[in-house]
Specification:
374 residues, FAD/NAD(P)-binding domain, six-stranded mixed sheet, 15 strands, 27% helix, disordered N terminus, binds flavin-adenine dinucleotide, DAO, D-amino-acid oxidase activity, FAD binding, FAD-dep_OxRdtase
């Protein structure tokens, strides 16, 4: 992996949340009476690996596209390009996409795509009484949205050097709206949305905590500390954060959309003309990275990420992100597995897991786990 290709510092990146620098994991100095001594260590070994997955984050340097346009006699609403933050942002941008789509007052609406954006947009519109059909070439569990880690964190979905102030102004209420809606799914087992003890760990101290995306009130129990941190790191930002299990969440939202009347149709669109030949006069484009070819959006490119799933450990209810020379090591526990990551490689299109990367990740997390028990 080429280190220059790693995405560090894009948009609301982990860097902005306190992980700007990337240096070797420091030697731990752990107080035996650590406040984390009740944390159980991650069992990270190759014999606990169930599978690895690779997904392509649909990244637009200027930020997601959320707007309505007229093409011939059709209204096309675009809701795509959410990079590494699509699960997080989904309700927020889909609420606005649904508002655009409802304006022409056409009873029938087509939604293109059945990832998190298509599903949330379809559900919102169907609940408002519109006759919605989702057209897609892949449905859950076969979308990029199913691969997501998926921590609720507005992160890595635009380039700060490129995004406009108008984008940022509009983005804040979108983040907040999305968070509010996710709160309604917490602790309802069918949806797989749970609070977790989340640790951002840094190899060097910081003077102050920054204002986090959407406002610090979205991050319960947010604190920073410079001693007695997880794994002995010199600096830590701790908060309660939501973890969403897409393998539960997406089928549940799909089912809700169907119960509200949404129909599903397998379709693969090769061109805009294919799209314009749909019978509906209002079409919401939620095709993620697919929008690049379909609507000639040359600004968008993939940021490839590999994740590995380990056998579940119900005793683990904490998560962490640690910067390393290669990028990051992060761990998010779910009911059905422990997800470890992760990579972020710009413009890489391959979706085949790399065995060496899996081994490196497993070893990296095992080294961290040793710091809990040493
Ligand atoms: C490794 C990894 C980790 C991630 N972690 C997080 C995280 O922790 N938190 C977070 O918020 N986000 C995370 N993300 C980002 C998130 O997964 C994406 O932003 C999100 O899934 C995008 O959703 P979408 O619905 O726009 O696209 P997709 O899920 O890709 O759905 C696109 C849909 O459009 C359909 N489609 C595309 N082209 C066509 C076509 N031509 N014809 C017909 N159908 C078409 C597809 O079949 C699919 O149904 C992560 C992503 C990856 C890869």
């Amino acid at each position: 992996m080429n280190r220059r290709d790693l995405l560090i510092g894009a948009g609301y990146s982990l860097g902005m949340l306190g992980l700007a620098s990337c240096s070797a994991i420091p030697k731990a100095t752990i107080n035996k009476q650590s406040r984390y001594s009740h944390y159980k260590p991650l069992l990270s070994s190759m014999d606990r690996v169930t599978h690895s997955v690779v997904g392509l984050r649909p990244f637009r340097p200027q930020g997601y596209r959320l707007e309505s346009e007229q093409l011939e006699n059709k209204t096309i609403v675009h809701n795509y390009g959410h990079g590494g933050g699509g699960i997080t942002l989904s309700w927020g941008t889909s609420i606005i996409a649904a508002q655009f789509a409802s304006k022409p007052m056409s009873r029938d609406i087509a939604v293109l795509g059945s990832g998190v954006m298509g599903l949330t947009t379809a559900l919102l519109l169907a609940q408002q009484g519109f006759k919605v059909t989702i057209y897609a070439k892949d449905f859950p569990p076969n979308t990029t949205s199913n691969i997501a880690a998926a921590l609720w964190l507005p992160s890595s979905y635009f380039d700060r050097k490129v995004a406009t102030s108008q984008f940022l102004t509009r983005d804040k209420p979108i983040i907040r709206g999305s968070f509010s809606r996710f709160l309604t799914y917490v602790n309802r087992p069918r949806y797989g949305v749970y609070w977790n003890n989340y640790h951002l760990l840094l190899p060097e101290e910081r003077n102050s905590i920054r204002t986090l995306p959407g406002g610090n009130d979205l991050y319960p129990e947010l604190t920073t500390s410079t001693e007695d941190n997880l794994f002995g790191y010199p600096y830590q930002s701790y908060m309660k954060a939501l973890i969403i299990d897409p393998m539960l969440y997406l089928p549940a939202i799909l089912e809700d959309a169907q119960l509200a009347g949404t129909k599903l149709k397998y379709s693969q669109f090769k061109s805009v003309d294919d799209v314009l030949s749909l019978k509906e006069s209002v079409i919401v484009n939620c095709t993620g990275l697919g929008a690049s070819a379909l609507f000639s959006d040359n600004s968008m490119y993939p940021i490839q990420g590999q994740l590995t799933h380990l056998l579940p450990q119900p005793e683990i209810n904490y998560s962490y992100v640690v910067p390393t020379p290669e990028g990051y090591l992060y761990m998010f526990p779910r009911k059905g597995s422990i997800v470890i990551g992760g990579t972020a490689i710009k413009r890489a299109y391959d979706t085949k897991p790399n065995d060496q990367l899996t081994l490196n990740m497993v070893r990296g997390h095992a080294d961290l786990a040793k710091k809990l028990i040493s």
